[in-house]
Design a protein that fits this description.
By secondary structure, this protein is an alpha/beta fold. It has one domain (11-156): Decaprenyl diphosphate synthase-like (Undecaprenyl pyrophosphate synthetase), CATH 3.40.1180.10. Helix content is 51%, strand content 17%. A four-stranded parallel sheet has the order 1-2-4-3. Helix 3 packs parallel to helix 4 and helix 4 (87-106) packs parallel to helix 6. The longest helix has 22 residues, at 47-68. The chain starts with 10 loop residues before the first helix and ends in a 5-residue tail after the last strand. The relative contact order is 0.17. It binds 2-acetamido-2-deoxy-beta-D-glucopyranose. Keywords: Transferase. Pfam families: Prenyltransf. One of its GO terms (molecular function) is ditrans,polycis-polyprenyl diphosphate synthase [(2E,6E)-farnesyl diphosphate specific] activity. It catalyses: n isopentenyl diphosphate + (2E,6E)-farnesyl diphosphate = a di-trans,poly-cis-polyprenyl diphosphate + n diphosphate.
């Protein structure tokens, strides 16, 4: 699934966007990715499926922020504490992340057109080398973009070391 959707708002949604935009909008919104596993359990699917659907919803959400003209979004995707989950789940999450960053890079034309600057924050040395490389490519590629900022907290922690 793509990171960048073509805007698919119908006329009533476009009207709502217009109304919302006429007021004061936040300049920065943060999302904490949470509940993917609860979603999986509730719908009786594997955790991996929950994470995958969670990502798809995130892509929708980012598109809404772009439509609304919110310039900066921060996503708390994966904390250092999350590494304590089962090896199987961590591996699946890393593979999903690798695929998503790969996909993001393959959409670089759209990213550049939209002027999105991507910043990944966290202790990236904890991630597999392949993902570190993809993240570095995405950040270098988009570093001079200034229209919108997407911060992804990955291997982050709120706890002092
Ligand atoms: C990042 O993680 C490594 C491995 O656990 C650790 O040695 C290093 O101190 C951490 N860096 C920061 C800035 O916390």
């Amino acid at each position: 699934m793509s990171w960048i959707r073509d805007s698919t708002l119908n006329w009533i949604q476009l009207l709502c966007v217009k109304v919302i935009k006429s007021g004061t909008l936040p300049k920065h919104i943060a999302f904490i990715m949470d509940g993917n596993r609860r979603y999986a359990q509730k719908n009786n699917v594997q955790k991996f499926v929950g994470h995958s659907h969670g990502f798809d919803k995130l892509a929708d959400t980012l598109q809404w922020c772009l439509d609304l003209g919110i310039p900066e979004v921060t996503v708390y995707a994966f904390s250092i504490e999350n590494f304590k989950r089962s090896q199987e789940e961590v591996d699946a999450l890393m593979e999903l992340s690798r695929q998503k960053f790969q996909r993001l890079l393959s959409e670089k034309d759209k990213l550049m057109e939209l002027g999105v600057c991507i910043r990944v924050i966290g202790n990236l040395t904890l991630l597999p080398q392949g993902i570190q490389n993809l993240i570095a490519q995405a950040m270098i590629l988009t570093k001079d973009n200034k229209k919108a900022f997407l911060n992804v907290a990955f291997a982050y922690t709120g706890k002092p070391a």
